[in-house]
Amino acid sequence: MRSLARTATAVLLGAAFPAGALAQAPPSPPGDAQVKARVEALLGQMTLEEKVGQLNQIAGGLFPGVKPEEALRKGAAGSILWLNDTRKFNELQRVAVEESRLRIPVLYGLDVIHGYRTIFPVPLAMAASWDPSVHERAAAVAAREARAAGIHWTFAPMVDVARDARWGRIVEGAGEDPYLGAAMAAAQVRGFQGPYLGAPERLLACAKHFGAYGAAEGGRDYDPVYVPEGQLRNVYFPPFRAAVVAGVGSFMSAYMDLNDVPAGGNRWLLHDVLKEEWGFPGFVVSDAMGVGNLVIMGFAKDRGDAARRALAAGLDMEMASGAFPEHLARLVREGSLPMAQIDDAVRRVLAVKVRLGLFERPYADEARVASVLADPAHRAEARLAAQRSMVLLRNERKTLPLAKTVASLAVIGPLADSRADTEGSWMVFGHVPAAVTVLEGLRAKLPGAKIAHAPGPEIRRQVPSMFDQFMPGPKKPAQSGEQAEAAFQQAVETAKGKDVVIAVMGELANMSGEAASRASLDLPGRQEELLKALVALGKPVVLVLLNGRPLSVNWAAENVPAILEAWQPGTEGGNAVADVLFGDAAPGGKLPVTFPRSAGHAPLYYARNLTHSPEGSSMHNVRYWDGAPTPLYPFGYGLSYTSFSFSNLKVGAPPVKVGASATVSVDVTNTGALAGEEVVQLYVHQKAGSDSRPSRELKGFRRVGLKPGETQTVSFPLGPDELRYWSTSQGKWVQDAAAFDVWVGSDSTATLHANLEVLP
Ligand code: NOJ
Asked: Which residues of the chain have pLDDT under 50?
């Protein structure tokens, strides 16, 4: 430890590190006994204040008056967030490992959500790839860059199932489905953490926000959640459980009330389910200010009460609100909090630090950061991920792919040339957008073509975002009505006479994300009006959507010949859009969320239970009298430049008994003239049993690439893992002996059907 500290000083003075002290040095994972011995040895030396210090995460610079050095020197802080500065990381780390009594390294956490310098598509888009391997690689790149810069811990993946498109944070997760969500959660944990906690060039991951944050009433961020246990266990928990199984090292509790008990003070949630039932060995951090907030929420009577109840509920580390350092030691001394509870939390935090190798390698190698961030392989991976995440929503008369011989293009819309909006949400902590916009991507693709651009009227939030203050660059004043009208006319003029019009529209990055819920799902501002004027010009129009949530693009869905859902596609987004529009990449993504026709339909999701009067069966069974209640685009939907057929659906190995598995197989054939990719999706419905079950549930998927005329047989297991569920009537997990419908196809409305009988 001493020599390590001397090395660090040398480095800070400009000398080189010996390899052993650097973050990228290859460690081998310590065994459990080794970790335990080290943790116990430390714990035995710690004062009560030092223990509490490890449970305190402080802000590293965002707020004036915060002095991390002092806290670290006293051993009064175990972790720092909201700091993104490699030199400062090393400086502060030196204080922790050289100047504090026990020399425990500090853990640096930051929101590395969909990339650090190379930005990947937003998580909702990554889920639209239906390709967990691409999401895993994206997380690995993010980890490599962030770790090189000195970050140890990302507050990701966000694995909240979200079924209400109004909720802004739908952009951060994998959408509405627990099965797809679980696959994406596990993939991200593998990508961030690597083969083991502490693997070189990886991060500690954090599954958040536990749990059911996505079910906020009315889609209003932070509002209470009322979800019965059956729904929690069958719908909202599976991605969290998958993260635990994948070895995630930390969890973050959610802000909101869950069935009248705030998640951060909810012992059933954090202790009984997460730690006891699932055996989660890592630690739980609160969300920012989450402990102090327990007072504001009307749950705790004061900050001391909040600290005591949060810790007792199973929350191990407090993020930024300062109630733990203010009160925990006093509460222990008074006898109102057992020392054993403090010790359990400290053990969990220390064990993660040991496993991460921070004691051996506390510093970042400043000389290496720039080259890691500039690695061209990262951008290649981001371009591939963006291509794979795009969803072709409409393609009348084979408008797409466009021919590269096109002589002139108009690229219209407020998002066509905006780097920050192309990269998308969460770019708050000192990130400089390096994105290729759609306009730039098209210019690079077609250097010989005449490409004109006009943004049209600006779009902006009616209520500013709390994150705007962190975004670089001058803040523009709002356009006047006259300026907007001039911009509208200019956009139409620009489009006139061009061979093809590409309209790049949707939402600004700050229109989804935290505190970014909406009461409407329409295209904001005058975009639809502009789209109508562009279509009226009579030239082919392609709508490229950049957005972080489902949008009710009803008019476009009937009147614009081609629509490509590109989401917020990240640094390489513009190149990837150009690749897909011109057929250099085949669109094969599928919607991970239902697109409702109106915000009034939210929450709308495919896996709803049946009712006594099935929809459409007679006049009085119409769900709404003022329009179709069906989705604009269903879950799992997405077109291709080629066509696919499904045949030969078989459910093998009957009779199947409870506990045994059947094999479902199907042939998928590329029946078109181009190579393409299809996502084969398996859905089941249990016809009767202990409880009513959803009319359909996804239970398998595979993305396959096929040449024209090629057929592939795809098979899926269907057994207890897929068929069991938490039964409300029985209060436990069950697998019923029951009859099942089985469908396989290209989206959640698949019609190719087979039966499965599960016998007792
Ligand atoms: C609040 C957000 O809810 C959470 O997702 C994030 O990780 C923390 N702030 C830290 O930035």
From this structure: 1-26
